[in-house]
Amino acid sequence: MKVLIVESNPELGRVWQRHLERQGAEVTLVTSQEAAILALYGTAFEILVLDLVLDQGSALAVADFASYRRPEARVIFVTNTTFFSDGSIFAHSSNACAYVQSGTPPEDLAAMVEHYAAGRRSRPCGSR
Question: What is the radius of gyration, based on Cα positions, of the chain?
Fold first, then answer.
């Protein structure tokens, strides 16, 4: 399983990265929109863990580019704000599969990544 973490706080991103790597994931950690776009050019990620409020760039631009470049990839948005707390993120990003708080325990986030990546491997997008 290939995972792209786009998180402005590198310490938090490394915590998530370590948990995912313990589960056998290949993880790339970047901190900006530009680095995320470059990573998406080169690697077929199954899932992105994407900070909704990036210090450098736009998370929605990353998600939009991922839906174009890697349409099979799903996005778990993480945030420490109340933006999109009404669930409207799913209307703005067709590849969004979850929306969680940045303070979610890393083991729970890792379980969600595994769940959504496994679902993507076993059935096509939009299937139930």
Answer: 13
Residue 30 in tokens: 């970047």
pTM for the model stands at: 0.87
What's residue 34's pLDDT?
97
| Mean local confidence (pLDDT), 47-75 | 92
In angstroms, the Cα distances linking 30 to 9, 13, 33, 92 are 10, 8, 8, 23
Are the C-beta atoms of 98 and 77 separated by less than 8 Å? yes
Cα separation of the two ends of the chain:
21
> Side-chain half-sphere of 112: how many Cα atoms within 13 Å?
20
| Mean pLDDT of all residues belonging to the chain | 86
pLDDT of residue 93: 76
| Three-state secondary structure string covering the chain | CEEEEECCCHHHHHHHHHHHHHCCCEEEEECCHHHHHHHHHHCCCCEEEEECCCCCCCHHHHHHHHHHHCCCCEEEEEECCCCCCCCCHHHHCCCEEEEEECCCCHHHHHHHHHHHHHHHHHCCCCCC
